[in-house]
Amino acid sequence: MTLLDTFKKLPLGGVDRRALVGALSEHGARAAADLLRVHRARVQPMGTKIAPDAAVLVLGGSNGITRAVAVQLLFGERAAVYGVHLDSEKMQIGPHHVQALTAAAAAEGVDARFWNADATRPQTVEEVVAALKERYRAVHLVNGIAAGATKRYAEHGTTTVRDLDVAFDPVLQVPDFSRPENIRKLGLVEVEVATDADIERTNRFMGTSTLLWAEPLAAAGLLAPGESVVAFCDYDYPADDPVYAMGPLAGAKVLQRKSMQEIRGRFGVKTARICYPPVATTALGAIPGGLLMYGLSAQILKERGELRDVLDLGRETMALWRPDWEGEELRLDSAYQAALPEFNARKDKLAPSDIPGALHLLFEEGDGGASKKP
Fold it and tell me: In this record, what's one Pfam family (predicted)?
């Protein structure tokens, strides 16, 4: 096996913070509005059956897959969307995406309202539930919070994993595979050990947060038995994954799955675990090994004619609101799971000299570009 250098995985690919603040201030609003315009041109109604007196509450919605879900709901299904996200107003693109979404929805006469707040704070929950109660009979909940520690439990110790060093779009803040020079290096990155504070925070945001919202929604009469859908966004990781399977992310997902069973039993709602494949989002870029996982699997899926971006996945998520949906699990990662044996075979043989050529379809055919990824 080829010896690889170890490199430090920097936030957003190492974008300078001062330059980031300046770029967002100058270009953030326009970039978000332009991207939304491109995405709206691809939106098609999926025929969901969301009642006009019901709303969808998205925990997230300002970026990545949950933003794509919100785009489809608002402009494809014309469903009301309320969202709770937690972003820096100066340093993250999320608030600009939200501003673009709410302005466009208002122009279309569709109700969209977002809070930039900690979704696990009781005051936030109380305020949002009260606002929903004022206007709607029923609520659907999609939990896409991505705020976990991408580290390992102490008993597993530290390790290194293969990853790519990829340049990020400094405004949209996503890994940009659209040009070969952006795929800078194949190497190793360190995976640290999680602290007790890391574990507690991961469990709070990604383990018990769905139940935290379901209980007050039900108490307010907003979870309609047999109608409301309560879902969380998941990634079905391999059992031997050195990051996901051996740290707080795995523990939080166990808690989340248990809480879904409790929610279904107590409130009589439809529950769903939505399994997504890796996509080129801001969140994925923070996970050790995540950019290699996306880049190489995307190359394989592109070869097979099966690559889908976040907007495709947002559209396919609408299956949750089909009349025949019975709940439990929505697999949007089948093609990705089927590609894993080939991914693992190529990953083990990959050498630094193979980069960026091994991912050529992502930049030759324009499928890895930040312009297409929220």
Answer: Enoyl_reductase
Q: What are the percentages of helix, strand and coil residues in the chain, rounded to 5? A: 50, 15, 35
pLDDT at 373: 42
Three-class SS of 312-330 = HHHHHHHHHHCCCCCCEEE
Asked whether the whole model's pTM tops 0.90, one would answer: yes
Q: What are the pLDDT digits (tens) for 335-355?
A: 999 999 999 999 999 999 999
Place of tokens 């312009």: 371
Distances (CA, A) of 22 to 62, 90, 93, 285: 20, 9, 12, 21
The burial class, CB within 10 Å (0-12 / 13-18 / 19+), for 240 is exposed
| Contact call for residues 286 and 11 (beta carbons, < 8 A) | yes
CA distance 260 to 367: 35
Q: Tell me whether residue 357 is in a domain.
A: no
CATH of the domain at 56: 3.40.50.720
Residue 356: is the preceding peptide bond cis (ω within 30°)?
yes
The answer as to whether 356 is a domain residue is no
Q: Which residue type sits at 44?
A: Q
3-class DSSP state for residue 335?
helix
Element (H, E) at 237: none
Angle between helices 122-135 and 209-219 (to 10 degrees): 40
Q: How many domains does the chain have?
A: 1
The span from the CA of 174 to the CA of 183, in Å, is 13
Q: Is residue 184 domain-resident?
A: no
d(CA 245, CA 222): 35
> What is the C-alpha separation between 244 and 206, in angstroms, rounded?
13
Cross-strand partners of 186: 164
Residue 353 lies in a domain: no
Instruction: Look over the chain and give the mean of its residue pLDDT values, rounded to a whole number.
Output: 94
Cα dist from 119 to 127, 141, 181, whole Å: 11, 13, 38
What are the pLDDT digits (tens) for 218-238? 999 999 999 999 999 999 988
With tokens 């504070």, the residue in question is 197
Residues, the chain, total? 374
What lies within 8 Å, CB to CB, of 333 at 6+ separation is 235, 236, 275, 276, 277
By the 8 A CB rule, do 227 and 320 touch?
A: no
Domain that holds residue 72: 16-149+195-283+306-338
